Structures are given as structure tokens and as C-alpha cells.
Amino acid sequence: MTDPHHIGDQPVRCADARGVRTLTLDSPRRRNALSLPLMTALRDALAEAAGDPAVRAVLLTHTGTTFCSGADLSGRGGTPHDLAGLLRALVELPKPVLARVTGHARGGGLGLLGACDLAVAGPSASFAFSEVRIGVAPAVISLPLLPRLDPRAASRYYLTGERFDAAEAARIGLITSSAATDEAVDDWLSPVLDALRRASPQGLAAAKRLLTAQVLRAFDRDTDSLAELSARLFGSAEAREGMTAFLQRRDPAWAQ
Fold first, then answer.
1. Cα–Cα distance for residue pair 86/178, rounded to 1 Å
2. For residues 104 and 162, what is the distance between their CA atoms, to the nearest angstrom?
3. Percent composition of the chain: helix, strand, coil (DSSP 3-state, to 5)
4. In the structure, what pLDDT confidence band is assigned to residue 9 with cuts at 50, 70 and 90?
5. Which of 3, 58, 129, 170 has its CA 20 to 30 A from that of 149?
6. Is pLDDT of 3 > 70?
């Protein structure tokens, strides 16, 4: 394995091993929130992987106890179109993208999982569509997620913001599989990555195009309207109250 290195000065590390490019979200003090620097670094890393013939697959993982906490509420976040562009880059990448999760995922972090082709999580992981708790909705991330999720489960978790575990995430289609231990996550990944190494690059790219065609049509059709919805909700007085309450660790005004 090559020594991990930062891509520029951005919070993503990159390492190669036997045809697998591992991209590690490495901003643990910010809970790997989707700041504009992180999203830009990840898109750049994906573009680099797409153009490297030695890369057969991409593995997305994280440092710290949080895979990705979703939108950066500190003022460093990008626009909804920035997030849509990142999610589309994951879906369009002509190589399989796998997610390795041993930490928490919220909001936009679940969008990253939906945009990956395969995902596995351990018992340290937890998941929640937390948007409704701060006055917004899972708008842009619905583009890759709704085609994958069980519709009844999506209704429950979109509307309630409840937290659920890796076994439930696998049951509802958010991830591919849950592992009994965090160590077993890598045991699950090992034969899958070996199988991808044996597959032809042309075959992988063509198979992925078949799998993602419907999702990409949704991006073409709905990106602008969902980005506008997200921007409108985030700019509302109710969302400002929700985000302020979250940062101040108190209940928002509407909580009963």
C-alpha cells in the first residue's frame, strides 16, 4: 500500500493497494461534515481515480467515530448544487465505489452511501435522516437514495428522523450488508474486492452504467428543482431556528 497522503491541503486521504483506491474522509474534529473543501477534495479525488487505469475500484471510508455528519452548519458548507455534483460524480464514476462504515452517518452522509454501488457497516455505525429535526428535508440526497430504499422505510425515517442501526440499514436497502463486528467489515470487503480485481475494466464500467441509468435520469430531471427546494428550506426562518438549536444543543422552538 502506498503511504496515505492529503490531496492538496484538503481533508481527504488517498491510498492504493492492488488496484483499489481508498479515499478516507479525514476531518474527524468536524465529524467529516460536508464542507465545501471536503466536497471539492472528494470530487477531485474521484476524477483522479476515474482517469487512472491502475484503479479497478474505489473504497470510501473515514477516520474517527463519524463517517459523515451531513451538511456543514458552521458556514463552510457549499450549495445544494455542490452536493448534487458530488453525488453524481460517485454515481457516474466508471468504476465501482464501495463504502466502509464503522461510524455514524447523518443527512448528506446517507446520500454518499446511496451514491455508492456497495456499502457495508459495522455495529458502531448508526444512521438517521436528521433533516426534519432542523427544519429542512432530504431533498438532493433523494436522487440516489429513493431508488434504493424500501418505500415504507423511507416514509418512516424521512418523516421521523429516528436513528437506526446497520442491520436495519441493510434491511431497508441503504447499505448492502451489516457485519457482526467492526473488524468483520473488512472480512466482508476482502472477497468482494478480490472479485472486482478479477473483473474486466470494460465489463465493470458497462455493468455500472446499466445499474445507474435510472438514477442518472433522475439527476437529469430533478437536480435543479431539488436543489432549489433545499436552498429555500435552508434559508427559511424555521431552519435558522433549527440549526441554531442544534449548535446550542437545545430543543428547537417547535419541539413538544
1. 25
2. 13
3. 50, 20, 35
4. low
5. 58
6. no
- Exposure string of 90-108, with b = 16+ CB inside 10 Å and e = fewer, is bbbbebbbbbbbbbbbbbb
What is the side-by-side order of every strand in the sheet holding 164-165?
Answer: 66-68, 104-106, 126-128, 164-165
Question: What value does the mean pLDDT take over residues 133-137?
Answer: 97
Q: What percent of the chain has pLDDT over 70?
A: 96
Beta strands in 118-175 (DSSP E): 118-121, 126-128, 164-165
φ, ψ of residue 109 in degrees (nearest 5): -65, -35
Distance from CA of residue 230 to its chain's centroid? 17
Instruction: Please list, in sequence order, all residues whose beta carbon lies within 8 angstroms of the beta carbon of residue 184, skipping any fewer than 6 positions away.
Output: 122
Q: Which of 101, 97, 102, 143 is nearest to 118 (CA)?
A: 97
Confidence of residue 256 (pLDDT cuts 50, 70, 90): confident
What pLDDT was estimated at residue 120? 98
Calpha distance 121→180 (Å, rounded): 9
How many Å apart are CA 205 and CA 114, to the nearest integer? Answer: 18
> Rounded mean pLDDT of 113-130?
98
Rg (CA), the chain: 17
- Would the CA dihedral through 129, 135, 137, 139 be positive or negative? negative
Query: Closest Cα partner for 252 from 135, 174, 104, 139?
Result: 135
Look at residue 75 in the predicted model and tell me its pLDDT. Answer: 74
Taking the C-alpha atoms of residue 245 and residue 133, their distance in angstroms, rounded to an integer, is: 10
